[in-house]
């Protein structure tokens, strides 16, 4: 999660008991990667159902002017290092 989180001096509290209704924008979430079920990934939640999000703020995978509405029952995750991240832009 560099550069957002320091490699030293940060405290992360992970709760596996959070219901989806309690998630909020900006939360860090760990989940099983849909691309590789043997890996756990950590991403930042930036979109809740009904939110309009920029598909790719870096402009590398899609024009930075492209936006989508997050469907009901879904959320939008992006890695803090967006240029190197696999996230809701790919899955």
Write the layout of secondary structure elements.
Elements (H helix, E strand, L loop, with lengths): L27 E5 L7 E8 L4 E3 L12 E3 L6 E3 L13
Low-confidence stretches: none
Number of H- or I-type helical stretches: 0
Structural class: mainly beta
Tertiary shape: globular
Strand content: 15-25%
What composes the largest sheet?
Answer: 3 strands, antiparallel
Termini separation:
19 Å
Share of helix among residues? under 10%
Spatial ordering of strands, largest sheet: 1-2-5
Got a strand count?
5
Query: What do the pLDDT scores average to?
Result: 86
Keyphrases for this structure?
globular
Task: Give structural notes.
With 91 residues, the chain is mainly β. Helices cover 0% and strands 24% of the residues. The strands form 2 sheets. The protein has a 3-stranded antiparallel β-sheet with strand order 1-2-5, with no helix packed on it.
Give the gist of this structure.
By secondary structure, the protein is mainly beta. The chain is globular and about 35 Å long. A hairpin with a 7-residue loop joins β1 and β2.
